[in-house]
Amino acid sequence: MISEIIESSVINKRIKDISHKVLNSVRITPEEGIALYREAETALLGLLADQVRKRTVGEYVFYNRNVHIEPTNICVYDCKFCSYSHHQSKESWELTVDEMVKTVLNLGDDITEVHIVGAVHPARDIYYYADLVKRVHEARPEVHIKAYTAIEIEYMAQRSGLSFKQGLQLLKDAGLNSLPGGGAEIFDDTIREQICGKKSSTEAWLEIHETAHKLGIPTNATILYGHVEQFEHRIHHMELLRQLQDRTGGFNAYIPLKFKNKNNEMSYIDEVSSVEDLRNYAVSRIYLDNIAHLKAYWPMIGKEMAVLSLAFGVDDLDGTINDSTKIYSLAGAGDQNPSLGSDEIRQLILKAGRVPAERDSVYNILKEG
Ligand code: V47
Ligand code: SF4
Predict the structure, then answer these.
(1) How many CB atoms lie within 10 A of CB 132?
(2) Element (H, E) at 145
(3) How many CB atoms are located within 10 Å of the residue 339 CB?
(4) Is it the case that residue 160 has pLDDT exceeding 70?
């Protein structure tokens, strides 16, 4: 059926040629990626992305049981898209290590991952964060600790006079298992300057992730899209990730994060449409042919859209978060108290005609069906 659609007269020659490459597992070029964004029919993008998804991960849709811990909203940076830091919310808060350890101790037995990401606190060095990881690990040794974006790592390592390698090794020795993908935003210096001026560079983000991979610490990668960037910037961002993945193989998942415009200094920018979200998932799945998993972060796009995204290349719905993240509710995400139990997540996946697979943090299947 897909070949008939490609051959139909409404599809132009260039998109036909790119489609054949995708179906034959031939890597597409940056120019071809941009052409897909600009010219391809949405239905065709969905079909192509679905083919790539099928041959990469089959019919599984992954989820895990996780909890988010956000240590503080006090931040040395002041990103214009951020609704979360004390600059915007006008209210500062920070949790003590004891409070965070208590949260972890009170979690149900079924949690397999703790995700720790917060703002970049001016007074906290890497020894503080290593101690937090160590205490969380001691409290629940069986739980995977995915913690600290490259932005946090850069600041804490520099504040303590350590190289990225030394800092990451210290955190790993304390019990850190993987890094989340945040802080990537858009790998373009001019745009970074506009939306997150003082925050760390493209080079630093990529170097920290490459160093982590070489130390045996897997990571995720994100993109913040739908603000002032062009399709060229999205493709360049993915191109840098694709090249790094070719060198290390250390990325587990790619997570497109849709810019949300409430309560931040970029509120004058309209959010992109849901169709654009689906097109972006599809092109991401097609372009990043070497990153196995494409994650729809449902607290950001809502449950209905998350289900739709499964037809556009997505194979991971993240976790059973119990209202533990404020990053998106403050920025105006539809779901102000995000929470989704594993039965509900499984039902959503089954409704989409796919196979639910509870995973651990490195995509081993713990429970199927
Ligand atoms: O880097 C901040 C984004 C990220 C807004 O690795 C915003 O599994 C949209 O990285 N609109 C942090 N996005 C969250 C993050 C993440 C989330 C879920 C899973 C994983 C993972 C990582 O949140 C920031 C920034 O790009 N962000 N403000 C906003 N207004
Ligand atoms: Fe700080 Fe992160 Fe918000 Fe930027 S996005 S101001 S680094 S909390």
Answers:
(1) 26
(2) strand 144-147
(3) 12
(4) yes
Which residues make beta-bridge pairs with 147? 116
* Number of the ligand closest to the Cα of 84: 2
Ligand 1 and 222: CB distance under 6 A:
yes
Q: Hey, what are 209's tokens?
A: 């992730």
Tell me how far apart the alpha carbons of residues 17 and 46 are, in angstroms, rounded to a whole number: 17
Delimit the domains of the chain by residue range: 2-50, 58-368
Degrees to nearest 5, angle at CA 168 with 164 and 171 = 145
Instruction: Choose which residue among 76, 79, 117, 259 to substitute to test ligand 2 binding: the one with the highest number of ligand atoms within 8 A of its C-beta.
Output: 79
pLDDT value at position 237?
Answer: 98
Taking the C-alpha atoms of residue 39 and residue 139, their distance in angstroms, rounded to an integer, is: 52
CA distances from 267 to 81, 88, 234, 330 (A): 8, 12, 21, 12
Which one, of 242, 243, 245, 225, lies nearest residue 234 by Cα? 225
Query: Which residue, chain included where needed, has tokens 């697979």?
Result: 357
Give mean pLDDT, residues 223-231.
98
User: CB neighbours (10 Å) of residue 110?
Assistant: 9
The third-level CATH classification (topology) of the domain covering 58-368 is TIM Barrel (3.20.20)
pLDDT of residue 54: 98
Average of per-residue pLDDT values in the chain:
93
- CA 156 to each of CA 70, 84, 87, 187: distance values in angstroms, whole numbers, following the listed order: 16, 20, 20, 21
Looking at the CA of 78, which ligand is closest?
A: 2
User: Average pLDDT for residues 63-85, to the nearest whole number?
Assistant: 94
Between the CA of 15 and the centroid of ligand 1 the distance, in Å, is: 32
Read off the tokens for 135: 């205490």
Q: How far is CA 333 from CA 78, 262, 329, in A?
A: 20, 8, 5
| The pair of three-digit structure tokens given for residue 66, joined into one six-digit string | 């996780």
Q: What pLDDT is attached to residue 47?
A: 96
Structure tokens belonging to residue 234: 């999205």
Q: Tell me the C-alpha distance between 169 and 296, whole Å.
A: 30
Q: What is the DSSP letter of 310?
A: G
Pairing outcome for strands 355-359 and 365-368: antiparallel
